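Task: encode each sequence below as structure tokens.

Item 1
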Amino acid sequence: MRTGEIAARTDTPVRLLRYYEERGLIEPQRLSNGGDHDEHLVDRVQQIRGLLDVGIPTRLIRSILPCPNEPRSIHMPSITPDTVETLESGRDRMTDKIRCLTRNGDAITSGCRPRRSVRDPGRTRAPRGERGVPQRR
């Protein structure tokens, strides 16, 4: 898969993907099909973006990135109290985002249902040219 395809699938600018490469967050691999990246990088880029979104710095992300064979887990061989604090703070921000997104999703779902309008059966619509003009009785 080419860099442009990864960018499109993850909604990440190519320039940012190059930055991730420079920082050692992702590694390009020449594949037999001519592409630069394996499919697992879509998952990895999404994981990197999510961690950055909650304030975890790239230097820490590089040390907690998963092994290629377990793309959805986080492995950290040694951990300091500062790292624990940063990760817990990031986790708390993720939890807050999840709550907010769930609340917004629920609001959209309930707001998108068709509502029945109760109309006065004795009332008729004004002719096309007279809409919006108050009628005197």
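Item 2
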Amino acid sequence: MRKTQQTVNGKQKGGETMAADREGMQEQNRLGALIKNALRAKSMSMRKLGGIIGMDAASISRIVSGKQRPRLEQLHLFAQHLQIPVQELLAAAGLESKEMKDDISELRDAMQGSGICVENMTGRIRQELQKYEAYAQTDEGREMIQGSF
């Protein structure tokens, strides 16, 4: 049995490829809708956002319309300045993989199996990082860091 061919933008595509393209467009539309809603809620234009994050409005427009795939750094900037959780942007852009979630679950299970308490681990890690950050501000801390490199 032969697959039917359809033309998209002047190119022949099989049914499977077109379905993948539609899924990609839906993900980009989710990302675009998310960004547009956040811009609207903040009464901010793409041009103003671009000025804040150092990106031209045309690039933002291409990302919002699904014509350009966003880079991870761009999603982080959008998250930071539009107050959208980065995980939500990653999922909307189709960059959050099931494998990554599985790996995190496996790591959590392995740590618990080793007797490591993973409850409130994020808070404890943040506290430790704050200590190191404060230490890095001292002369001794800076010397130790520079000596390590």
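Check on item 2: Residues 17 and 31 are 21 Å apart (CA to CA). The mean pLDDT is 79.
End of task.
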